[in-house]
Amino acid sequence: MAIDAALLDWMIDTDPALRWQVERDLMGAPAEEYERTRARIPTDGMGAALLAHQDPDGRWAGGAYFPAGFEFDGPEARSGQPWTATTWTLTTLREFGMDAAPLTGTAQLLARSARWEYDDLPYWGGEVDVCINAKTLANGVWLGADVAELAGWFPAHQLPDGGWNCEWLEGSTRSSFHSTLNALKGMLWYEIAVGGAPELRASRHRGAEYLLHRSLLHRESTGEPVGGFVSEFGYPWRHRYSVLNAADHFRAAALYDGTTPDARMTRAIEVIRSQRDVAGRWLQQFRLPGRVWLDIDVPVGEPSPWLTLFGTRLLQWWDGAR
């Protein structure tokens, strides 16, 4: 799929966190070129701005998943989850592709200073929420924390249908698209970093089957879309599922596993392709409410450079394999 030069210029005229991926994945730039851009993430633009908010004790906003002093029954809780605390900020920096070197020592600081709002549990041990544990697993292995025990949590808490659900503690036995995708993404990050174990890889593949069996978008029982959220695209992903978010993961997993695109993704790819505009862009369709350090992407209704990167490289991978 040929990419219009004007579209590439529009995407690279952004932040180093986005630009380096465009250079690598869409422009075929030499490694030394895109790595120079990637090295600017902690010193220029959004990456530098997020690093500047880190507390001396290694945390952000004084909390693990929520900012210090967050009132769970207050007006802010009713208007939206804040995205400023440690887990969310680390996840953003990691997903930017930033090298962990500027955060040297952060894993050790968090081991001493950070506790989960749930039961005051130690930070790198995780807690009971699948999505939280998935992000902690990926962030931990990125920063060099010992999260091997947390990696074993996922096979142990996989539901009979093959996926995961953050409401398992309340007795849910039916997996969630959101929870399952987040689990898969965290496990893949861990495997890429340290290789993982056969049990973990088997668990990841079984979880992938849960989504692939449903074509990434429909209920097994009726064949209807599982919800409107599957075809609504917005970045940052946060914890929210969409077929673009899922397909982007399956592309990364296939490249790591050395496999070709799974034909069961065909309907999801059709949904993604149908939302590309005549200029080759994807629009920002929603933004989750809540306090942020900065706006990472464009307002709702505007063409999104981030979503366009994900959509374009996905279709290149998919079409190229055919």
Condensed summary:
With 322 residues, this protein is mainly alpha-helical.
Structural summary, described in words:
This is Squalene cyclase. The structure is a single chain. This protein has helices at residues 5-12, 16-25, 31-38, 45-51, 75-79, 86-95, 106-113, 130-143, 148-151, 153-156, 177-194, 198-212, 243-257, 266-274, 305-320, and strands at residues 282-283, 303-304. The chain is mainly alpha-helical and 322 residues long. The chain has a two-stranded antiparallel sheet. α11 runs parallel beside α13 (243-257). The longest helix is centred in the middle third of the chain and has 18 residues, at 177-194. The radius of gyration is 19 Å and the shape is globular. The mean pLDDT is 96.
Strand order of the largest sheet: 1-2
Largest sheet: 2 strands, antiparallel
C-alpha geometry: globular
**Continuous helix count:** 15
Q: What is the alpha-carbon Rg in Å?
A: 19 Å
Cα separation of the termini: 12 Å
Write the element-wise H/E pattern from the N-terminal end onward.
HHHHHHHHHHHHHHEEH
Average pLDDT, rounded to a whole number, is: 96
Structural class call reads: mainly alpha
Strand content: under 5%
Protein name: Squalene cyclase
Organism: Nakamurella sp. A5-74
InterPro entries: Terpenoid_cyclase/PrenylTrfase
Spell out the blueprint of helices and strands.
Layout: H1 5-12, H2 16-25, H3 31-38, H4 45-51, H5 75-79, H6 86-95, H7 106-113, H8 130-143, H9 148-151, H10 153-156, H11 177-194, H12 198-212, H13 243-257, H14 266-274, E1 282-283, E2 303-304, H15 305-320
Antiparallel strand pairs: 1-2
Helix pairs in contact: 2-3, 2-15, 6-8, 8-11, 11-12, 11-13, 13-15
Protein name: Squalene cyclase
InterPro entries: Terpenoid_cyclase/PrenylTrfase
